Amino acid sequence: MRIALAQLDLLIGDIDGACAQIRQAVAVAAKQGADLVVCPELAAFGGYPPRDLVERRWLVERQWAALTALAETVALPTIVGCIEPLAGAARPALANALAVLDRGVVATYRKRLLPTYDVFDERRWFRPGEVASVIEIRGRRVGLTVCEDIWPSADSGVDYGVDPVAELIGRCDLIVNASASPFHVAKPALRRRMLADVARRAGCPLVYCNLVGAQDELLFDGDSCIVASDGALIARAPRWTTAVTVADLADRVADVALDDIDDLWTGLVAGIRGYCAKTRQGRVVLGLSGGIDSALVATLAVDALGAANVTGLLMPGPYSSRGSIDDAVALATNLGIAHHTLPIGDGFDAALRTLQPIFAGTPSGVAEENLQSRLRGTLVMAVANKLNAMALTTGNKSELACGYCTIYGDMNGGLAPIGDVYKTDVWRLSRHANRDRERIPDASITKAPSAELRENQTDQDSLPPYHVLDRILRRYVEESASPAAIVAAGEDPDLVAKIVRLVEVSEFKRRQAAPALRVSRKAFGIGRRMPIARAIG
Amino acid sequence: MRIALAQLDLLIGDIDGACAQIRQAVAVAAKQGADLVVCPELAAFGGYPPRDLVERRWLVERQWAALTALAETVALPTIVGCIEPLAGAARPALANALAVLDRGVVATYRKRLLPTYDVFDERRWFRPGEVASVIEIRGRRVGLTVCEDIWPSADSGVDYGVDPVAELIGRCDLIVNASASPFHVAKPALRRRMLADVARRAGCPLVYCNLVGAQDELLFDGDSCIVASDGALIARAPRWTTAVTVADLADRVADVALDDIDDLWTGLVAGIRGYCAKTRQGRVVLGLSGGIDSALVATLAVDALGAANVTGLLMPGPYSSRGSIDDAVALATNLGIAHHTLPIGDGFDAALRTLQPIFAGTPSGVAEENLQSRLRGTLVMAVANKLNAMALTTGNKSELACGYCTIYGDMNGGLAPIGDVYKTDVWRLSRHANRDRERIPDASITKAPSAELRENQTDQDSLPPYHVLDRILRRYVEESASPAAIVAAGEDPDLVAKIVRLVEVSEFKRRQAAPALRVSRKAFGIGRRMPIARAIG
User: Does B193 lie in the same domain as B332?
Assistant: First the structure.
């Protein structure tokens, strides 16, 4: 039996586009002699997560009509993720389903385990399926599952009280899993182990087809594959790209190695490229401070969009060092991007003059520091509007966690490419960016980080060394460890208290932050929902 | 039997504060001879919605320990909403529960119907309870329920497959419902009808205790009450304020009338006051354009915080009319608030000079318009930082829906008091503000709305009359009606297509908007979750 994995990159709600891609994938698969085509979760609706678009019942109906029409035309049995409208008025009146197309929609299966943690909200939109489904295709019994259905509770931590895999054991010759499984660093290795475990446990091959591409903050690495009942690899789709991969169940291939930092780089590039493509943005603009964060984001943007579509703005202010300006120019030159120098001095002086009625006689402080950042943010947006480009923010996760960023200033932008990357990983990625040749100036990587908003300022005036900060943040933000537990693990109590307080009081900034590409288990954004008004410390 | 409704206003996560308030309420109730005290949903954790704070297991444990200690000291049987940690490691390992305190925690009940629509995410955090609970207090059989448990599916539209009220009929002499039921306009009347229906259906009195106050964008009006088995009113707590209301089940009182526009006013004032109090902000600052939106927000802020804590900024620009400046001054004078005039001309000129390398030779357009708004936004934030105040945004729901607002400009601020109020309701509220005397200048109410960002601009250059716009927006945003259905209801097809497109393409702005006080069934914010990257039109 030959099976095709249709690893698709889709646009939410673009039903015609999705059906065209599915039709094209089936045609390719047919030419390669496939007996069955498997598409990702919710493919017919244009991918994942559809969020509250699913509440537009008319859109769901249109998708169902398009899927029904598609079913008449496909040359091969095809399993497509879709939204199934359920009979009756009671909500949720939808299922996250699979449709089996074979001259008509010949069967459907409804996802049974609906994740409702982190970035997932499936109970909000869908009613869980209640029964297993085994269909017959070319004489083989094929068990159907969707994404979470096969993840053991040891990984998700969630006890659904149902084990869909157990119900399929002994009842099928093959298990299909259609997924939209978001990427984070180290997830691919985890997923590969999990898939081999499921195939061995089920005692039959497992066909895993995952979505690929970017959807707002979520990244999908693809990594679709077919695993034999002994855990051996039958086929593997290329990662981070669309593909129709066809294999015979008798095939065996060697696996492709994984590298976390390379993966992180590729994912961030795919995230920028996908977000821009799917929001119809051809160009980006960003501030270049001479520091490592903006240098990294510019380099990622060049890899995503090409140097011709990236514009850098140098916006020196009263406290900018000569070295920073030189480093920013060197970066732009290395990358071959357009850059302009727009000093903020005149604007800063004008603003301070305007503010005299209120500022006169007060000491210079956070108002004056933020003002510089906001004037820069205003210039970035003015240029973005003029060039019909999108602004990228350059803040990293460590900053965003501690609130070391200015709302309506350096936080201005439509996407935060490294908003889920800790500063220590910013350094690792920057060295990776230079693996073939120096693109990010060495000085940007090695100098002490500074916002340069006052005389002789450095980040470490008020923060611990970044390796200590990031270690504490990982425990507090990602693992929800208590301050007491972090101290018990050996951290300084005063430092922990200080950092916890910074994280807590800057929640209001993150509520208004640009979507940050999610590359960790717990990113700021749709997967972390905190009240702003709450008890602090 | 005498029952006390402890209608509390709490701070999420402030466990000590919550326990102190409960203890105090019990003391008051005891003095008035109560036999039983009922507190709102999740009271022991500091109210609703706790969101991902519940993932801090140590905080939940601390709450449980505090509740257990409290149980030893209360003089009366007391029913308290709380988070109950469940045994075992499987997630969700928590229940949205009631604890019955009576010299120890003598019983718990776990909420059975967990809403997961609109602003609710309860399946994310809690495991549903599986059994009804009837306890005995002073010889009476008391059935326990939490909020959604008693709402019929005709209202929520959700079919849970379980009817907790039905399971209590005939088994108890009294039903208690502890709630955290968010306000929206017309909800109180709906809720009163529902409560009377439940009491009649159950054939016994219903004790309803609701949270009061504001929590981020959510408002709670309280309106706690006791309803007799025939639907008659036994007691009603005052609305929009904390109260301990004690009544005998034999009592009868006349009900208090409801008025939607007065309620909306009171709710918005409570929302501003609560948000500021709970985020430790004493002062607010906002731009005064002379238009009706900023005039309304300033007036609401004065009612919430007092004139001494509101600062208005007049920021005339190249296209500001003399009338607008006069109207803003008249408003500030009427309200008795501090106001400063900070013209943006110098800053605008400086920015345009700085941008010359890029702007030279281009026609003036959206970049120059937004620039004015962003310079104003930057001044507002500078003053906010300097005065240690919070900025309020002044945009209304009609603007926010259509994207007629500038991100990082007039959208700057920590709270959007009227971000869920349509423009047509802005006019109604403004007339309400002047019910006793003119506070909002009549000219601000009667003149044609304009952003004044270019020569002779008015909102109706590019938008239909607001009563038409708002009617279309209500159908599209709140009712999820399809464009075709809206046209079929009699609207102009081209206009519907244009407005739908405006709503769709401005999703990215709303993702970064300040929390908007929720006063409708469907507000922009945590209850409406849309992908940014998606098919448009």
Answer: no
State the nearest Cα–Cα gap between B199 and chain A, in angstroms: 24
pLDDT at residue B328 greater than cutoff 70: yes
Q: A532 and B515: CB-CB below 8 Å? A: yes
Same domain, A242 and A368: no
For chain B, the domain total comes to 2
Q: How far does the CA of residue B36 sit from the closest CA of chain A (Å)? A: 29
Residues A120 and A244 in one domain: yes
Does residue A258 belong to any structural domain of this protein? Answer: no
Q: What is the domain extent for residue A472?
A: 464-505
| Dihedral over Cα of B299, B304, B310, B314: its sign | negative
Q: What is the pLDDT of residue B537?
A: 66
Please, which residues 9-68 of chain B have a Cβ atom closer than 8 Å to chain A? 11-15, 17, 46, 49-53, 55-59
B495 domain-assigned: no
Residues B281 and B244 in one domain: no
Residue A524 lies in a domain: no
Question: CA-based Rg of chain B, rounded to a whole angstrom?
Answer: 25
Q: Is the domain of B179 the same as that of B271?
A: no
Answer whether A359 sits within 8 Å of B386, measured CB to CB.
yes
pLDDT at residue B179, rounded to an integer: 98
Partner-chain residue, chosen from B55, B528, B531, that has the shortest CB–CB distance to A480: B55
B111 part of the active site: yes
Q: Is residue A55 part of a domain?
A: yes
Catalytic residue among B39, B82, B147, B204: B147
The reply to whether B273 and B416 lie within a common domain is: yes
Q: What CATH number did the domain enclosing A218 receive?
A: 3.60.110.10
Chain B CB within 8 Å of residue A90 CB: yes
- Identify whether the C-beta of residue B421 lies closer than 8 Å to the C-beta of residue B519: yes
Q: Does B2 touch chain A (CB under 8 A)?
A: no
Using the Cβ of B362 and the Cβ atoms of chain A, whether some distance falls under 8 Å is answered with yes
- How far, in Å, CA of A500 to CA of A485, rounded? 12
Specify whether the CB–CB gap between A370 and A409 falls below 8 A. yes
Helix (H) / strand (E) containing A479: none
Taking the Cβ of residue A530 and every Cβ of chain B, the question of whether any pair is shorter than 8 Å is answered with yes
**Are B172 and B286 contained in the same domain?**
no
Q: Among residues A252, A275, A301, which one ends one of the domains?
A: A252
Residues 6+ apart with CB under 8 A from A119: A49, A182, A217, A218, A518, A525, A526, A527
A-chain CB neighbours of B475 within 8 Å are: none
Q: Hey, are the CB atoms on A529 and B340 less than 8 Å from each other?
A: no
Per residue, the 3-state secondary structure of A243-307, as one string, reads: EEEEEECCCCCCCCCCCHHHHHHHHHHHHHHHHHHHCCCCCEEEECCCCHHHHHHHHHHHHHHCH
- Same domain membership, residue B290 and residue B169: no
Chosen domain end from A229, A252, A275: A252
- CATH code of the domain containing A271: 3.40.50.620
- Residue closest to A62 by CA, chosen among A101, A11, A123, A18: A18
Quote the CA–CA distance of B368 and B435 in Å, as a whole number.
Answer: 39
Query: Each residue of B431-440: pLDDT tens digit?
Result: 999 999 999 9
Question: How many residue contacts between A and B have a Cβ separation below 8 Å?
Answer: 266
Is A371's Cβ below 8 Å from some Cβ in B? Answer: yes
**Whether the predicted pLDDT of B156 surpasses 90:** no
In angstroms, the CA A116 to CA A152 distance is: 15
Q: Tell me the pLDDT tens digit for each residue of B290-315.
A: 999 999 999 999 999 999 999 999 99
The residues with which B84 forms a beta bridge, in sequence order, are B95
**Helix and strand counts by DSSP (H, E) for chain A:** 18, 18
* Residues B464-491: tens digit of each pLDDT: 999 999 999 999 999 999 999 999 999 9
A487–B contact, CB cutoff 8 A: no
B147 counts as catalytic: yes
Cβ-based contacts of A367 with chain B (< 8 Å) = 382-383, 385-386
Alpha carbon separation from A42 to A177, A209, A352, B57, B330 (Å, rounded): 12, 12, 54, 34, 57
